[in-house]
Amino acid sequence: MSGTLPATHTPASGMEDLRGRLQGYLRRHLERAQLELSSIDAIPEGHSGFTYFLTATDGGWSQRYVLRLPPPGARITGPADVLRQGRIMAALNEQGLPTPRIVANEEDPTVLDGRPFCLMEAVEGTRIEPLVGQVPSISIAVAAVDTLRRIQQVEIEQSGLAGERAVPLTEEMMRWAWLMQRAPEELTGAAPALGARLAEKQPSDPEPCLVHGDFHYGNMLFRIEDGKPVVVAVLDWEIAEIGPPLLDLGCLCIVAQRNQVPGAPNPGGGIELNVEDVIEVYGAEPAEARWYLALSCYKYASIFGYNLMLHRRGKRPDPMYEQLTGVIMALIDSGSELLA
User: Residue 233 domain-assigned?
Assistant: First the structure.
């Protein structure tokens, strides 16, 4: 993708005020009276909107942070609930899992501009794009699956989502059907048939666990250790939930396959690797895994289609989604083939 920033980021006119408020907050919060925010920049790699890199200095001390804000005026729920995301990452970080250390999960909306925020330490790591070709693709998948297994072993009470109910598969499918109905119809005409097939072949609900919900290579940072890739951070916990373990395996397999559509962007991390190989690394039963892969096809087609609709209506401008029209149709076709 290009380095163009999504239009949803805070305008430059408001950045200086944001910088001043954050600087004052950090001086108090970190007990560093001379702390200076030397930079605050929107992160160009993501499409989540209000995410920024901050660099704080104090004499010879320097620290890079990531700031996450909900959209202005948004109801603080779902993907806009940055405090919930912060709680999950903090809980996992305390247990030694690869998530950023949370510096502040600030509920008081008066600190900045009427919005709560999550501030975390930036993790030094490599994105998937420069990693592809440096090491075997299967080793990247092994690192991701190993991390996924560790996440799934976390006790729900220690996941940051204690008290939340598990989301049943029927509700999971209805969630994406709602988005699909709002996507451009000329792209999603085959989606109702896929949705009906998913419902027909739906498995029973398994024992639930912590689910990232968007578990793909583009939401990870890596480091090479002893010649092998290691996941050092799992980011973007916007749609995390308590649910079936194979939901995240489906995400990992399907999003990486978007590079099968020539010319389409793939911030999810396109690597040349058969999904059967990833399923084998995880150890899932292939027939059951295929249903979850088909659900992931349906899910991402609905997400991309819904975001395309928002872009075209000027509600959330991001031209990347115009480049995903072929991907949306290909995902629906792939899901249907998986259940044939």
Answer: yes
Query: What pTM was estimated for this model as a whole?
Result: 0.91
Q: Let me know whether 148 and 111 are in one domain.
A: no
Tell me how far apart the alpha carbons of residues 90 and 104 are, in angstroms, rounded to a whole number: 10
Paired tokens of 44: 């160009």
Helix, strand, coil abundance in the chain, percent, nearest 5: 45, 15, 40
Handedness of CA 122, 320, 148, 89 (dihedral sign): positive
- Predicted pLDDT of residue 45: 56
pLDDT score recorded for residue 5: 31
Buried b vs exposed e over 305-314: b needs ≥16 C-beta within 10 Å?
bbbbbbbeee
Tokens of 311: 């872009």
Q: How far apart are CA 302 and CA 294, in angstroms?
A: 12
DSSP 221: E
Q: Where among 88, 121, 154 does a domain terminate?
A: 121
Q: What is the mean pLDDT of each run of 10 residues along the chain (340 residues)?
A: 37 74 96 94 67 94 95 82 97 98 95 93 94 92 97 98 97 98 97 98 97 95 96 97 98 76 69 89 96 96 96 90 93 94
Q: Please name every residue paired with 234 in a beta bridge, in sequence order, or none if there are none.
A: 220
Note the pLDDT of residue 279: 95
pLDDT of residue 255: 77
Count CB atoms within 10 A of the CB of residue 6: 20
| E strand intervals along 27-116 | 36-42, 51-58, 61-68, 102-106
Closest Cα partner for 321 from 179, 132, 220, 196?
179
DSSP state of 168: P
Q: Give yes or no: residues 144 and 274 share one domain.
A: yes
- Looking at the structure, do residues 29 and 164 belong to the same domain, yes or no? no
State the CATH number of the domain containing residue 144.
Answer: 3.90.1200.10
Q: What is the CATH number of the domain that holds 67?
A: 3.30.200.20
Do 114 and 136 belong to one domain? no
Q: Are 328 and 188 in contact, with CB atoms under 8 Å apart? A: yes
Domain of residue 68 covers 12-121
**Alpha carbon of 222 to those of 89, 180, 253, 280: distances in Å?**
17, 33, 18, 22
